[in-house]
Amino acid sequence: xxxxxxxxxxxxxxxxxxxxxxxxxxxxxxxxxxxxxxxxxxxxxxxxxxxxxxxxxxxxxxxxxxxxxxxxxxxxxxxxxxxxxxxxxxxxxxxxxxxxxxxxxxxxxxxxxxxxxxxxxxxxxxxxxxxxxxxxxxxxxxxxxxxxxxxxxxxxxxxxxxxxxxxxxxxxxxxxxxxxxxxxxxxxxxxxxxxxxxxxxxxxxxxxxxxxxxxxxxxxxxxxxxxxxxxxxxxxxxxxxxxxxxxxxxxxxxxxxxxxxxxxxxxxxxxxxxxxxxxxxxxxxxxxxxxxxxxxxxxxxxxxxxxxxxxxxxxxxxxxxxxxxxxxxxxxxxxxxxxxxxxxxxxxxxxxxxxxxxxxxxxxxxxxxxxxxxxxxxxxxxxxxxxxxxxxxxxxxxxxxxxxxxxxxxxxxxxxxxxxxxxxxxxxxxxxxxxxxxxxxxxxxxxxx
Length: 449
Ligand SMILES: [Zn+2]
Hints:
By secondary structure, the protein is of the alpha/beta class. The chain is built from 14 helices and 20 strands. The protein has 2 domains: 1-147 and 267-352, ANL, N-terminal domain (Rossmann fold), CATH 3.40.50.12780; 357-447, ANL, C-terminal domain (GMP Synthetase, Chain A, domain 3, 2-Layer Sandwich), CATH 3.30.300. Strand 5 (209-212), helix 11 (214-225) and strand 6 (235-238) form a beta-alpha-beta unit. The site of zinc ion has 7 residues, from loops. Zinc ion (ZN) binds at residues 275, 277, 279, 282, 337, 339, 341.
């Protein structure tokens, strides 16, 4: 956006971020030993800070203040939210006020002028609130600039197109807004736009860099194969939902080996990014300690897929997270990456891939609908949890909580019509709890043949 005037606050933020870049560049060349020493020291500092400033952690870790990390109790989203006011370390952060800020459509981008707020989806029945100070956000942004080939390219003014969530509080939206402060030629699209519109805009813009969700990447690869899309990106970054082998294969079939996966979580920001060797994703171990565990929270060795991970965000102070549980199944690689970076590799993230549903088009043909369309409708309604299931009988929407079924139905039909889909049967069903898969996951969009 050349010529756009930046606010004084933005200039301060950019200066702060760029000042961090050389530090992150140096870390790419650390030895494993240097990294371990840094982690141990950063963990000590985090715990000392939490015990001094957070009444919650003093109580939660009572009798364990000197114990190794692996002996500390696991923090769940439920506890984090229930004890929010005691857990955070800044007196201005009060859950009720943060939630009021989130609900205010005309809100300032920053809460209390100092904090960025993101929310997690309510698919498991409870929204989580994540808070970042400006300093914390600058560190995450600097790490992204150094560790992501696509983000780093913003400094070199490549033409970049992003196709992300319409939800302004989605982590991907916050990240993109930050990156937009850099003056690069940029096209911003929403994953909820009809596919034909996205294809036409990309054909006109011809991006060199693409930032998107994996499900959008799969759909665009098919459009390119069918001859409707004709772009030649030099790098495609998949964010938020896990790339998956199938999406990678399809994208590489049409664009070559240009896909990069990134693994992040709303609560702690970036977790891992893929390097130019494409052997997996390097964990941002200087910012977050990741423990791979089974259902009983016992450690899972490299080479095996775990049930969930526990993250300790070494850089977070406003809302410290120590052994915070994330419902993702990952596998650590057994071999180091040939690139020589000291950071461990995650070579698989399972259970995050979301299904794209296909419907007959109102104008004929087949219309594919991205899961973000369902998120946009259902996350905005006062439902507890939700799940969309498509089978031969039609579309079934399970919801928990106190919401009018007709309102859910009408909102979904509107959104699907806007996509050009013809919907023969849509049933909204209330349930006590969203059913889980055998592995304990609650997928939000499910297709059953
Ligand atoms: Zn590497």
